[in-house]
Amino acid sequence: MEWGTLGVAATGALFGIGATLITDVFRSRRERDQRWADAKRAAYARFLTALAQAHSRMTVAAARGEAGPARRQAIHDAFLSDPQYSDAKSVLREVALAAPDHVHQAAESVYEQLRAARDILAEDGMDFASPQYQQAIRPFFANLDALQRLMRDDLQPPAERRV
Question: Where would you find the membrane-spanning parts of this chain (predicted)?
């Protein structure tokens, strides 16, 4: 065998091995990024769902018409007793681990707004039409929508993000 043929064969082998390695690195990175995006998507969905369901459970508890400490306890229990997850605060901690700072800060703000609405709703004599409750719950829903958009944008590939 001639040296030239051997050199061309060795170069071809090195080129093939190099191309395979590069392809495997890119595929591995793409799969890792997809798993991370899936984990973030799941945490985001759990958090948004936990907030919405906590609000629903609170309003149901408030509609029962209890008064005094029983009302306060029923609304607080409704806020914390999520049958699917432990509660919105626990899922907020997942978001803190997975989300960029700006998304986590927005999520924490929305959570605090729901807590404030909970405290107002738990007061005696409060109902859904009271100005104090409406003043607390309207920004919650507006910021919940804004948070959902932030989360959706965070899940987009970097070239498609609006933020």
Answer: 6-26
Q: How far is Cα 45 from Cα 151, in angstroms, rounded to an integer?
A: 9
The span from the CA of 145 to the CA of 9, in Å, is 60
Query: Which sequence spans correspond to the domains of the chain?
Result: 40-160
Confirm if 145 and 48 have CB atoms less than 8 A apart: no
Q: Which of 57, 114, 67, 69 is nearest to 89 (CA)?
A: 114
In the structure encoding, which two tokens stand for residue 110, read together? 């929305």
- Per the confidence metrics, is the pTM higher than 0.70? yes
Work out the average pLDDT over 85-101.
Answer: 88
Distance between CA atoms of residues 163 and 150, nearest Å? 8
Check pLDDT > 80 for residue 33: no
DSSP 74-139: HHHHHHH--SSSS-HHHHHHHHHHHS-HHHHHHHHHHHHHHHHHHHHHTSTT--TT-HHHHHHHHH
Residue (of 152, 122, 109) closest to 57 by Cα position: 122
Tokens 């927005």 appear where?
106
Q: How far apart are CA 87 and CA 134, in angstroms?
A: 23
